[in-house]
Amino acid sequence: MLQLYTYFRSSAAYRVRIALNLKSLSFEAVPVHLLRGGGEQHDAAFVARSPAHLIPVLRDGALTLTQSLAIIEYLEETHPEPALLPRSPAQRAQVRAIALGIACDIHPLNNLRVIKYLEKTLAASPEQRTAWSRHWIEAGFAAIERLLEKAGTERFCFGDAPSLADCCLVPQVFNAKRIGCALDSYPRIVRIYEHCARLPPFERAAPGAQSDAE
Angle formed by the axes of helices 89-100 and 164-178, to 10°? Predict the structure, then answer.
């Protein structure tokens, strides 16, 4: 059985949980607490699997994979149905643009290790750290909202079914709501999030549904 090293509130792990559920793949969730005892992601046994000290990690037999988008693309190639990427190269690029806009432009600036650096090295206050996160999420969402307007869809980021883009968008909106971002300026993002969040594969992947939820 597939094993996913995960943390209930990790946006990156959340993406992979959604993809696994959309493809109806059974997996064992192995919780890695990112805060307890200084962070279990720094334990030697885990670092042997993930040299960057990051989750998620997917184990498929003897194969160990890191990085959420690489993992999802692996699942797409090994379990192609239902597809998370369109057939057309142009449309695949459009879906990837939305996914990468979240996974590369928004999420890294709000990752736990960045927030910890702001706190411990730069002595940023809780208010400053929250303002930092909100600024970069809202700036990124402004760009994503424009891409969604061009795509012209209502229920999902692209087309009539969930895609890689939705796997990335839903966790990022969850995180934005958790820290109190103003979302009124992003109606398409909110509409897609609310639609997807009600679907069983997304519900089962949600942070509150995980065995390690606090």
Answer: 20
Tokens of 85: 């990427």
State in words which class domain 89-201 has.
mainly alpha
First-to-final CA distance of the chain: 26
CA 88 centroid distance within chain: 24
- Cα–Cα distances (Å) from 88 to 7, 19, 57, in that order, read 34, 20, 29
The answer to whether the CB of 78 falls within 8 A of the CB of 25 is no
In CATH, what number does 2-82 get? 3.40.30.10
How far is C-alpha 79 from the chain's CA centre?
20
pLDDT in tens, the chain (214 residues): 999 999 999 999 999 999 999 999 999 999 999 999 999 999 999 999 999 999 999 999 999 999 999 999 999 999 999 999 999 999 999 999 999 999 999 999 999 999 999 999 999 999 999 999 999 999 999 999 999 998 888 899 999 999 999 999 999 999 999 999 999 999 999 999 999 999 999 999 999 999 999 8
Domain with CATH 1.20.1050.10 in the chain: 89-201
CATH 3.40.30.10 in the chain is located at 2-82
Structure tokens at 36: 């307890």
Report the alpha-carbon distance of residue 9 to residue 155 in Å, rounded.
24
| Cα distance between residue 199 and residue 204, in whole Å | 9
